[in-house]
Amino acid sequence: MIMFRVEGTKPVAVECPEPSWPNKDADGETIFNNTHFVLEGETWEKLRSEHEATLRMAAGSLRSARARVDELTKELADVVLEREECERNFDDWSREPKRDAP
Q1: How far is residue 9's CA from residue 6's CA, in Å, rounded to a whole number?
Q2: pLDDT by residue (tens digit) across 41-89?
Q3: What's the chain look like in SS3?
Q4: CA distances from residue 51 to 19, 28, 62, 93 in whole angstroms, order as listed
Q5: What's this model's pTM, rounded to 2 decimal places?
Q6: Which of 8, 17, 38, 79 has the fewest Cβ atoms within 10 Å of its own Cβ atom?
Q7: What are the structural domain ranges in the chain?
Q8: CB-CB neighbours of 38 under 10 Å
């Protein structure tokens, strides 16, 4: 029996002598209900839906990464301002007469 499976970016036809799990197709690949399909159209649906899910996940990860970069940029800017204030305070202190603890 001819079945279809995804190979790269398109479905390929493959001979499946016994078209059920845990049998193998003619290329030695194990037949699963989510890897081998009777209809070529089902294989296209699987392929396209997997790409769509991967794109959604990657876009979500990118949004999260951009949000984290924004957080870190603000944190860095805050620390830079604090450091500048610290340096001004140090400069003021270094010009003052020193007080020793009693």
Answers
A1: 7
A2: 999 999 999 999 999 999 999 999 999 999 999 999 999 999 999 999 9
A3: CEEEEEECCEEEEEECCCCCCCCECCCCCECCCCCEECCHHHHHHHHHHHHHHHHHHHHHHHHHHHHHHHHHHHHHHHHHHHHHHHHHHHHHHHHCCCCCCC
A4: 26, 25, 16, 62
A5: 0.67
A6: 8
A7: 2-89
A8: 13
